[in-house]
Amino acid sequence: SKVNNCSSSGSVTGGTYNTGGLVGSAGDGSSINTSYATGNVTAENGDYVGGFIGYVDSTMGGDFNRVRLEDLSIYGGDYVGGLVGQFNAAKPLTNSYVKNALVYGNNYVGGLFGDITAAGSSLTKCGATNAVVMAAEDMTGGIAGRSRAASSAYCYNTSTADAKVIVIDEADGEYSLSAEYIGNHFSNSDE
């Protein structure tokens, strides 16, 4: 599917899986460009919940560029993100951000992504501003609750320090991207 120059506002209430402010689930060949969403996304105890897309599983074609979300609340169970609940796409995501958001879930909760599972994915110029990220249980990050992304550059979270941020989970060797982890790639610009 291709989503270009689209917007969504208002409230979305979902069920058990794949709830997003605009798209529940995006598959192969999907692309999202220059799109915007605002409002509330709620799937009480539902998994794969995102302010824009609940679940992305895309291995061929498409790209994700210039997606922005502002003034929203996202509530879910596991894999909850300001932008995407779970991003399983070996492709770049660029120039996208979340601003003025509350992101809440149980496990794998992040300002932009709950979970990035594709090792071939990359993040460039993506961030969260004034986003409070909270998890009832584990794996929380300012950018992603958990990430296997190959690279990140100029990503940022300039939000309040009230969020619980786990930088390294030594039990399974995985890590959560946060402003602290990104270090010298930190940027204060959302352009």
Describe the structure.
The protein is an all-beta fold and 191 residues long. Helices cover 2% and strands 61% of the residues. It contains one helix and 19 strands. It has one helix spanning 179-182, and strands at 2-4, 7-8, 11-13, 17-20, 23-26, 31-42, 47-50, 53-58, 64-75, 78-81, 84-89, 92-110, 113-116, 122-141, 144-147, 151-153, 156-157, 168-169, 174-175. The strands form three sheets. Strands 1, 2, 3, 4, 6, 7, 9, 10, 12, 14, 16 and 17 form a twelve-stranded parallel β-sheet that branches. It starts with a strand and ends in a 9-residue tail after the last helix.
How would you summarize what this structure contains?
By secondary structure, this protein is mainly beta. The protein has one helix spanning 179-182, and strands spanning 2-4, 7-8, 11-13, 17-20, 23-26, 31-42, 47-50, 53-58, 64-75, 78-81, 84-89, 92-110, 113-116, 122-141, 144-147, 151-153, 156-157, 168-169, 174-175. The longest helix has 4 residues, at 179-182.
